[in-house]
Amino acid sequence: MSLKNTTAIITGGNTGIGYGIAEALAAEGVNVAISSRSLQRAEEAAEKIRNSPHTTGEVLPLAVDVRDFDAQKKAVQDVLQKWGKLDYFVANAGVGHFAPIQELSPDKWHETIDTNLTGVFYGIKASVEALTATRGFFLTISSLAGTNFFAGGSAYNASKFGLTGFSQAIMLDLRQEGVRVSTIMPGSVATGFNDHEVNEKDAWKIQIEDIGEMVVGLFKLDPRTLPSKIEVRPSMPPKK
């Protein structure tokens, strides 16, 4: 199944997993809109993808704060105005604040929940009509932290446990409308998440291009089949 001339929105597509997905889709001929809270960062990422020798799709940078429902609705309208349809929505944007509950501030709690969970709710509400028209695909990027809890992870665990459940519930709501919904739950990925600086010691981790390749395969899969929840982890993490 060819993805050429289809269209996608990727929230948080300027860096990390989102960038890896955007790059992989653009190489398949998908017209990709990548969003960031910073338009400059979205533009820089878009230019980098455009300059790749593998890119065959168009790339549109957008400034979107996923916590703003109106901003997400405008992003969908921008894509419809430019390309006439929306086939894929990848709800990737996320933040992580980690601290014992005694130290976790209300502001950090709300930023985590509002971005990682409410932002995805806004994404599907903004895009569901357009995705229904194309019998499209809504993909969320959750985490193994959405099934495995850990100390200091109360906000992040809550957001990702919620996102995993939300994704599975809307999958049941939308599959009879022809809209497929799935969630990918990665373990350790070599990204700058939580201010980590990627280096050669991260070679054992999942790489962003691995997630990109996985998403391409998921979107190419015959629509009769739906992997609704995908856990992915490094094959061989360091021994403890």
Automatic annotation (TrEMBL):
Signal peptide (UniProt feature, chain positions)? none
Where in the numbering of this chain does the Ketoreductase domain appear?
Answer: 6-193
Recorded hits in Pfam families, A to Z, give: adh_short
Can you tell which superkingdom this protein's organism belongs to? Bacteria
Any GO BP annotation: monocarboxylic acid metabolic process
Q: Which PROSITE patterns match?
A: ADH_SHORT
Q: Which family does it belong to?
A: Belongs to the short-chain dehydrogenases/reductases (SDR) family.
**What name goes with this protein?**
NADP-dependent 3-hydroxy acid dehydrogenase YdfG
Species assigned in the record: Cyclobacterium xiamenense
